[in-house]
Amino acid sequence: MTAEHTELEAEWARAIKALGGATEICLACHVRPDGDALGSMLAVAHALRTAGAAGRTPPASPSPFTAAVRVVASFGDRPFEIPRILRFLPGAELLSPPDRFPERPQVMVTFDAASADRLGVLEPSAAAAEELIVLDHHPSNTRFGTVNLIDEAAAATAVLAFELIGRLGVGITRDMALGLYAGLVTDTGSFKYSSTSPRVHEMAALLLRTGIEPGAVARELWDRSPFGFLGLLGAALGRARLEPAAAAGRGLVWTTVTRADRAAHGLAFEAAESVIDVLRRIDEADVAVVLKEDDDGCWQVSARSKGQADVGRACVALGGGGHRLAAGFTASGPASDVIAAFCRQLAIVSAPAGGR
Ligand SMILES: [Mn+2]
Question: How far is the CA of 56 from the centre of ligand 1 (A)?
Fold first, then answer.
């Protein structure tokens, strides 16, 4: 057993103890949640409701809870809206808007948030929480909790949420499985990315045994768009640029999705999310970048690498976060300046092509 593993084991014990002693548990995932953030949180919300209720029954049950538990779950977006593609996840009734989130939670758990500012308007609640359990897998995590369950080797936060549910002694139901599976397929790109370990498929197998339908999940997450999306995609792809010299000569392809594009087709911000999946196919570029203009006029920048460039380090240097092959940051100003700044960071973190 490695020292790292022993340390993580001690954190798990602290987490279960803190949860078991709580009468109110407040869950929060990062703003503009993706399938991993919201899916993991909802799965744990379902589990806590089960385990918390079990706390009222005699000690024969494996539940660590000694009293009935109230569960609050939210994320710090105003307006508070569940992203359209995630509305199929069971548990919307378990969510409350951030205004109803306790200002000083007894025990708070965060999901898939690499730093406290990713909690949006719920950041002050995290700072004031008596016990703050951080569940995450981003290498850039700032360890802002009192208990940090951070495993960079985990393919998704859903892997850690699955582990937590197991340690609470709760059996996985179909509702929990849908959330966890959404997290797993979101963060592994439907089992396409190199994070797809044997452990990922083993977990997926256990989830599928609850009867969830993987085809239906994929259709909800990726294979649906209103007709206007084609117009937005056409506009974004039409102004894509290839920068062959970027990323130490490995190439970078980039484009923008503006507010005007979205307004022209009546689309919300999240419609821009899948544009990166087209750009990242391009053979001439190791790196793909999409600048998505949000409703406040800021660029939400998504970056992907095929394996050579470390876009995570470049994004962290620009105030963002993420993984080596998938990361992001926020910026303002002309798009070409933002790309130039990103390319400078990439040059710093990239070894020359052909070298090591
Ligand atoms: Mn994640």
Answer: 33
